[in-house]
What does this fold into?
Amino acid sequence: MVREIVRDEKFLKVRSKPVTSEDLSIADDLRDTLSANRSRCVGMAANMIGYHKNMIIVAVGPVSMVMLNPRITRKEEPYDTEEGCLSLTGVRKVTRYNKIEVQFENTDFEKFTKEFTGEIAQIIQHECDHLDGKII
It folds into this structure.
C-alpha cells in the first residue's frame, strides 16, 4: 500500500527498533511507496512511512533492495555533499563516505555483509541515519 510520507521531525527523531517476522508487511508498503515516488526518490526508511522499524529500501537501477536491521560496520573515503529528503524541505550539508560495509538481513532473515560504493553507499547512509533518528 502506498503510504503518506511523514514530515513530522519529532516522529522522525525517534530511534527505530529491530524488525521481526511480524513486520514483514512493511517491506511491501516501502516498495509501493518508493515506486509511487520514484521520480523524486531513490531510497526510504520505514519511519518515513510511519513505522519505527529498522528497515530500508534502496533503488539499485530498476531493482529495489529491502534491507532489514542494516548496520554500517565500516566507512572509508569521506566527502562533503548536500542531500534532500522527501520528509524535509530543501537540502542540507552532510558528510558521507564513498565506501561502506553493511551487515543486514533480507526479507527471509538471511544475514549478509556487503560492501557498497558511490551513490548506493550514499543512499544507504542517508536511510540508516533515519533509522537512528538522525535528520540531515
About this structure: The chain has a mean pLDDT of 96. Residues 9-131 form a domain with the Peptide Deformylase fold (CATH 3.90.45.10). The chain has one domain: 9-131.
